[in-house]
Amino acid sequence: MKLLGISGTITGAKIKVVVEKVLEEVKKNNPDVEIELLDLKQYDVQFCDGRDPATYTGDTKKVIDIVSSADFYIIGTPIFQGSITGALKNLFDLVPPKVFRNKVMGFVATGGTYQHYLVIENQLKPIASYFRAFVAPGFVYTNYDHFSPKNELVDQDVLERITQLSQEVVLMQKALKKEPQFS
């Protein structure tokens, strides 16, 4: 089983910290799970222009291939202007929807206000529904107050939610692997 963590931004550092923390928790408790981090900051991804995804080259093709090779996901985004990042939306547009079908998604987000957690409920979960993906019941939302000045997560409640999310996605993925695959 391969878990892909996606840091869905090309700016900032906090969301990558949260995604990495979830991946660390999964690996600590499930050493058999293969872990990979996709940090969009590290790639020069083209804008989706509606063409067949197989025709993209370079970093865009690499990113599509990385996402396509995963069995389940931790997807993270900072919240900008009350929405997910354009980089993450572009990634969702580039990857064929069938790639996500019947796969587990767990969500994490960071934001400047406590109300921005609603972006997970009102934007990310509907996108997952469109893809016909399975969504972990819990999610992790962090505010800037949950970090130390060195960008370390210091809030105990957030750390507990990270542990819970890491357990949920693995539990769901293992349960789905036991069941016959849907078509």
UniProtKB/TrEMBL annotation:
NADPH-dependent FMN reductase-like domain boundaries: 1-143
Transmembrane segments: none
GO molecular function annotations of the record: oxidoreductase activity
UniProt name for this protein: NAD(P)H-dependent oxidoreductase
Organism: Neobacillus citreus
UniProtKB keywords: Flavoprotein, FMN, Oxidoreductase
Domain of life from the UniProt record: Bacteria
